[in-house]
Amino acid sequence: MESPLQKAKVLVEALPYMQRFFGKRMVVKFGGHAMVEEQLKRSFAMDVILMKAIGLHPVVVHGGGPQIGETLRRMGKESKFYQGMRITDQETMDVVEMVLVGKVNKEIVGLINKEGGRAVGLSGKDGALVLARKLLLENSKQQEEPPEIIDLGRVGEVASVNPEVILALERERFIPVIAPVGVGPEGGSYNINADLVAGAVAASLEAEKLILLTDVEGVMDEAGKLVSTLSVRQAREMIRKGVIRAGMIPKVNCCLDALAGGVKKAHIVDGRQEHAVLLEIFTDVGVGTEIVP
Predict the structure, then answer these.
(1) Residue spans of alpha helices (H) in 36-89
(2) Which pTM value belongs to this model?
(3) Which of 119, 163, 222, 292 is 20 to 30 A away from residue 170, measured at CA?
(4) Residue 157 neighbours by CB under 8 Å, 6+ apart
(5) What is the C-alpha radius of gyration for the chain, rounded to an integer number of angstroms?
(6) What torsion do the CA atoms of 21, 49, 110, 103 make, to the nearest 10 degrees?
(7) How far apart, in whole angstroms, are the C-alpha atoms of residue 8 and residue 25?
(8) What is the pLDDT of residue 210?
(9) Reading across the β-sheet that carries 119-123, which strands appear in turn?
(10) What's phi and psi for 125, nearest 5 deg?
């Protein structure tokens, strides 16, 4: 059993971080196992409630790929991917929006509110929060031939973020919970990668931190050991050398883009650990990899 003195020491360790981050904005991308396992979901809800209670301003952006895939499977519709991105025709987009905005978003909002917080659910369409443009990929062929353009359907990228809705909720002490569905210039919906939305939202707010919850410990070095701190230069060099590879590359690039957009620090954190967000923000050691300018 933890003694009262040990509990007091934990609070004292956290005090300088509470003072440093008072009034600061923190954008957290919620995904992976943390969104599936009940205890992890509850610990995440408690983390953001505590952050808000002590004067920080958390903003949550969530994913929902597995939930979308399961819904499509039950409907008898096959999920197709290209370079890790879901090919999204209009029927699939309707399902994506239904699951992300109508189901997953409301579950997260309900969980935070149940534990004593004050959360409000949004999508990128609310107040034109996330303006999107169609994402087109190029598949390079032989040098003398023009690249093939790959159309993924209703898959988008962030064109711009209008943070006024978030700031209005912040003034009223609400916790915004954002589904990664953007709105195009014609008013239609676009499916956007949640990491990219979180990074763009963090940059628009000039947030103190961007925190990406993942299903790995963080960034690993050549020996497979966790790297606790990386500079932008070191991160780019590790990508160039192939040390950072596969699915970690887009997450690190998302962090680098956010830092370039004005975010102070970016973190890739193991969301499989209870209270991972609090441990990363309020302890001396942390639980993941921080990337600094």
Answers:
(1) 38-53, 65-74
(2) 0.92
(3) 292
(4) 132, 133, 135, 192, 196
(5) 19
(6) 30
(7) 26
(8) 98
(9) 119-123, 175-179, 57-62, 25-30, 209-214, 265-270, 288-292, 229-231
(10) -80, -20
